[in-house]
Amino acid sequence: MATANKTPVLTVEHVTMRFGGLTAVSDLSFEANRNEITALIGPNGAGKTTVFNCITGFYKPTEGKIALRHADGSEFLLERMDDFRIAQHAKVARTFQNIRLFSGMTVLENLMVAQHNKLMVASGYTVAGVLGSSHYRRAEKDAIELAKAWLEKVRLIDRADDPAGDLPYGDQRRLEIARAMCTEPRLLCLDEPAAGLNPRESEELNKLLRAIRSENDVSILLIEHDMSVVMGISDHIVVLDYGQKISDGTPHHVKSDPAVIRAYLGVDEEEEEKDALAAKAVAEAVGDQA
Amino acid sequence: MASQKASAAKAGAYDWPAIIKDLLGTAFVSLLIMVPIVAYKSVITQYSLVLVSRWTEVFVILALLLGVRLFMHLFVWNRAPSPVAADAKPAGPAKASLSERIGPWVFPLLVAVAFALPFLAGFERRPIDLGIYILTYVMLAWGLNIVVGLAGLLDLGYVAFYAVGAYAYALLSTVYFPYWFGDGMVPWAFYITLPIAGLLAALWGVILGFPVLRLRGDYLAIVTLAFGEIIRLVLINWFDFTNGPQGITVPKATFFGLPFKAGDDGFAAFFGIEHNRIHYYVFLYYVILLLALLTYFVTNRLRRLPIGRAWEALREDEIACRSLGINTTNTKLTAFAIGAMFGGFAGCFFATRQGFVSPESFVFIESAIILAIVVLGGLGSQIGIVFAAIAIMGSFELFRELSVFQEYLPEGTDPVHFRMLAVGLAMVLMMRFRPRGFVTRRQPTVFLKERKAVSGDLVKEGHG
Amino acid sequence: MEYFLQQLINGITLGSIYGLIAIGYTMVYGIIGMINFAHGDVFMVGSVAAFLVVLGIGLTGGSGILMILLALVLVAAVAMVVAAAYNWTIERLAYKPLRGSFRLAPLISAIGMSIVLQEFVRVNQEGRPKPVQPIVTGGYEIMRRATEAGEFIVRLTNMQILIIVSTLILMAVFTILIQKTSLGRAQRACEQDQKMAALLGIDVDRTISITFIMGAALAAFAGLMFFLYYGVTDFFVGFLAGIKAFTAAVLGGIGSLPGAMLGGLVIGLIETMWSAYFTVEYKDVAAFTVLIIVLIFMPQGLLGKPEVEKV
Fold this sequence. Notes:
The structure holds 3 protein chains of 3 kinds.
Chain A: E1 8-19, E2 22-33, E3 37-41, H1 48-55, E4 63-69, E5 75-77, H2 83-90, E6 92-94, H3 107-114, H4 116-122, H5 127-130, H6 134-153, H7 169-181, E7 187-191, H8 199-215, E8 219-223, H9 227-233, E9 236-241, E10 244-249, H10 251-255, H11 258-265, H12 269-289
Parallel strand pairs in A: 3-8, 3-9, 6-7, 7-8
Antiparallel strand pairs in A: 1-2, 1-4, 4-5, 9-10
Helix pairs in contact in A: 3-7, 6-7, 8-9
Chain B: H1 2-11, H2 16-39, E1 40-44, E2 49-53, H3 55-76, H4 83-87, H5 93-120, H6 125-150, H7 159-181, H8 189-212, H9 217-237, H10 239-242, E3 248-249, H11 267-270, H12 278-303, H13 306-316, H14 318-323, H15 328-354, E4 356-357, H16 364-377, H17 382-401, H18 417-433
Antiparallel strand pairs in B: 1-2, 3-4
Helix pairs in contact in B: 2-3, 6-12, 6-15, 6-16, 6-17, 7-8, 7-9, 7-15, 8-15, 12-13, 12-15, 13-15, 16-17, 17-18
Chain C: H1 2-32, H2 39-56, H3 65-95, H4 105-125, E1 130-131, E2 139-147, E3 150-157, H5 158-180, H6 182-192, H7 194-199, H8 204-230, E4 232-233, H9 237-252, H10 257-277, H11 283-297
Helix pairs in contact in C: 1-5, 1-8, 1-9, 1-10, 2-3, 2-4, 2-8, 2-9, 3-8, 5-6, 5-8, 6-8, 9-10, 9-11, 10-11
């Protein structure tokens, strides 16, 4: 793979997040490249969702810098922005580990809410809308078209008028992705999109994510436990354990990294020392090669 | 107690020891509740405070309570729940589709009846007064519905905005307009003040809303209550500005400059009809009807605009809203401001109708009544609110009628005193038996093929 | 200085009353996470019941000190039991069936109950305030100084001593009850996790009922003290006192018992000082403003735990 044309869309530098005495993320740095799928993996409690919350502005990192660059060169320092401004201006969209749909609103309404800012402007910040401007009606029609397009992609077009809360679990996951995509993001952050899906559904999810990446100007950051998804679609994997990065590289590299194996499988203490030495040796070897 | 009931049901016979135990317990607690407060009434006589004992009443009530409870034990609670009843869903699909079929016709019908009311009532003063009274509360509840029903923010101080509107009219029409423009302006004061009252109330909505809107849940409710009380206390105590508890007498509204009076320059003379005091009340009735309809249509249109969808999304899930780039603070503020604005309009109207404003009218209990209407109607449902307002305000009126039963009641009790008691009980019972109000289904704001109402079980009620 | 000292004494007295009511708010909030909006009215019920018993047994300031103390113990016992019966019934009828119902339901039900209690007492006892002659009289002169306006005397009345001392005793008993007994443990367990507590064999319903009973008893005692201190009570005293006590509970950190007491003292002092140095008309505005400021700037209160938003 040619590394020359890879440009980072997201740069996380030395990010630390503390909650009282607990350090959830410690001195984490990594990059996510444009139009790639980057996966963030790690055992439970490794701090993955905390990283997401820092990137999307729901938490303010205790230390560190998170920068997002659009293709046109504009740069956003996410650690300084409010959560909704990150979504609105920096164009970062996200889904949630425990799905957060507007369950009492219909599927279509969910996608219309996602286009809020665009429609707000079109409705003249409500004033023209109340007076019934035709400009707004056109904008609303366009918004419905965009929503329809996404509903077709996630195969929910037949359920457009049903309440989101009535959908089965797998459909809700896909709807949440469609809703995030309706904000027309540059970076899409997916928090365990395959959780609770059966193998057929996660295979379908793989296809959807690949299609999203190739058809839109969007980069994807992914937290996932389902290794078939992670290994199947990621271009780049970052592994966290106890809030620290323990590995970073291609799926192939990460799969064989002893530090990763240790974090996932665990080892008793004696072996740990040996492994640490081995890992050090491997790391040095890798370092030499690079 | 539940297990005892169940065992009685299984055995198919009465579990007498358990029933007797329960009745004794009921008697014990009821006596504790009644003994000092019902059994002895303190009466201020000319020279001193004395207690009047009322044991007869206590024992009558106790006997009634125990009788009802025994009846429930014998004939209601001992039955095994029938499997059909247990399986039946609260809202069957057939029933829903019926209500959906007649749904679109309910509102036009209501409006038609409302417009015809003065004629149907034969231009009688009392039904028109009642109509004005109910419509005022419909309008207030529609305004509060934006905040509580759509945006899901529990506001216990809504009456403050009502007060702002009322005092805006009172002060502008009696003090500032004469001072700024001379007396010529006064006949027009209502029309000029109406938008100003709305704007002032909206402004206050923003001022009060800004600091408190990041609070969640019950805290928001208590803070809005505190704000409402602060405004009332300031109205009472800022004597120079508001004339304190004595209140302000305000001029009547005119028919676009034509006063409702007997003289040559009056409304009746202008239209060549005979002067009748009822004209003024019919006029007021139509004014509040139009104001209420304005509230209805604007709210309905707002629901279909991005701002309205954002309100409802906010009620469903605030965090998801923020992840979609919605500025939740501004969204909440607009809900607060627009809800307040309609409260301000209603307040301005109220001041004209009463011809008098004082802080007395803006107590917490008013906020509670308006909230009760919104909740009883079904959070977010505008039609439900109409029926709830008719039910609650109508029953208030009924209590006034009950004076005919005066002679049967113990001496010194006035049935009017029971009406707030009934409101309180209604709120409690409502929450217990129909917490989602009359209309639980939500109409979607946009659809591709067909408009399917969303079941109330899925609709969230907001975090505050 | 003398003036300030006098206000300090008055403020602590008032604060003790608020603190006793605040404990009821804080305990209920701690255990089931709802604002028992009717708690202020339970305080009122206690106060009115105390007033009726005082009137019934014909207690006046003329009796001997021992006699008065014994009678007051009796009055307090009756008021506490009556208020406990009210709060227990309220919980049973208006809150318990709503557990697991939609979020606003218990609060609206509680507002309804608050109206019911006020109107119930009003219907039964008429609306007019009922003044009685002071019962606990006398006091001590602490300081005396001549000023231009005449002599200023700092007084600590027996009534104030009674309020402060009995509050201290009640608080001590109460703290021991919560910290040392199995009942207190059950309460703390339910605060943490009701389901888990139930799985471990704690009778959650009973624990919640007892919490309401305890809160009511303390509020009723405060009601008695309030009535003795001001010599008057009516159906409406619970509204303002309730909101102020709630402010105290929030200020101290909701869920924290020492916090409730501390919050009560602070609110009592703020109210007294405001009346003394600014305007007495706006003392309630001051209390409400404190509530708003505290909720906005330090919602976790003085002794409470901060809450982290879960995403």
